[in-house]
Design goal:
alpha/beta
Length: 328
């Protein structure tokens, strides 16, 4: 259909040219005054920069709510986002985690083009799970959270740096949420506490966006991003646009269209159900629909982080934000 359309346009243009005499040809002055059609391009995502953002987070130590590492990392994230964004909001509250313990929760929201009506929300959690419960030999060990937490934040931060340098022309809000990973696996609703708080208490009363993009575990070697079930239910068209963008810019191996039945309770669930913003999740699965082997283990460290994967997700994200934000 597209080829036929362009063929028709070409034939019409050729016919018009043949019917014009030399006296009717526009002068060089006329053509010089005709503005060129702007070509929208996405900036180049810097995977080295994103990798450094992961390493910086890991260097603080496990970002467990209620520890010094949490506050130090929060201070750094806030400072970096203030250097990039038009406006930065902080939400500081206390939430109750399984076992009845109260812990501090720090959500950070960075806003670009705050007056724009058309908006996209990016969501990534920056805390780490307090224990390696998927590691049978040492289930109480602490986790670096390089991929699970660190990579999604790093991709969002590099996108923020690029948006500072080149305005995307639309509104973008980055929600870096806290206390995502302190939950009890027997109760899904004990996860994503920072996002649940934000969804009930948005940084701006009545806040909404056209849609949201979750970024979680987006930096590991060999990662593949299969379409996730909750995302299909609430934001299938928007997710398809993202996958199409990834395939367009050369990352088809990372963004297959296969349906493997993968699904997860992640931040996007509560953005969908509480904030009512259609949101999909970019999150790595194995082909058997399980998470990658380092998930919730001490192996989730810098050794699993791959710049190629960060590049694939980050460049796709920029393609969406700059070139095809609403092509769905």
């Amino acid at each position: 259909m597209l080829q036929k359309r362009w063929l028709l346009v070409g034939l019409v243009a050729l016919a018009a040219a043949c019917n014009n005499s030399s006296n009717n040809k526009p002068s060089s002055t006329d053509t010089a005054n005709v503005p060129a059609t702007p070509t929208v391009t996405a900036p180049t995502f810097d995977a080295d920069s994103a990798y450094d953002y992961v390493a910086k987070q890991v260097a603080f130590g496990p970002r467990i709510p209620g520890t010094p590492a949490q506050q130090k990392c929060a201070d750094w994230l806030i400072a970096k986002m203030k250097s990039y964004a038009d406006t930065v909001y902080m939400q500081k509250t206390t939430v109750t985690v399984p076992g009845g313990k109260n812990v501090p929760c720090i959500n950070i929201i960075a806003s670009f083009n705050p007056a724009a009506k058309q908006r996209i929300l990016l969501v990534a959690h920056w805390d780490t799970r307090p224990f390696a419960d998927e590691e049978k030999a040492n289930p109480t060990a602490k986790i670096d959270g390089a991929d699970d937490g660190g990579s999604g934040v790093a991709v969002a931060m590099e996108a923020a740096r690029q948006m500072k340098a080149k305005n995307p022309g639309i509104g973008v809000d980055i929600l870096l949420n806290d206390v995502e990973d302190y939950g009890d696996t027997k109760d899904d609703n004990t996860f994503c506490l920072g996002t649940q708080y934000w969804a009930k208490n948005p940084h701006i009363p009545g806040y909404t966006a056209n849609y949201g993009i979750g970024l979680d575990m987006v930096g590991a070697k060999g990662a593949r991003f299969f379409m996730e079930a909750v995302s299909k239910q609430y934001a299938n068209r928007q997710m398809m646009n993202f996958w199409n963008a990834g395939n367009t810019v050369g990352f088809s191996s990372y963004f297959p269209y296969d349906d493997i039945g993968a699904g997860t309770t992640d931040d996007h669930l509560y953005v969908n159900t509480i904030a009512k913003i259609p949101t999909f999740d970019v999150i790595a699965f194995q082909s058997n629909a399980n998470f990658l082997p380092h998930w919730h283990t001490t192996k989730d460290n810098m050794d699993v982080i791959d710049k190629n994967t960060l590049k694939a997700v980050g460049q796709t994200l920029l393609q969406v934000l700059y070139v095809q934000p609403f092509n769905y």
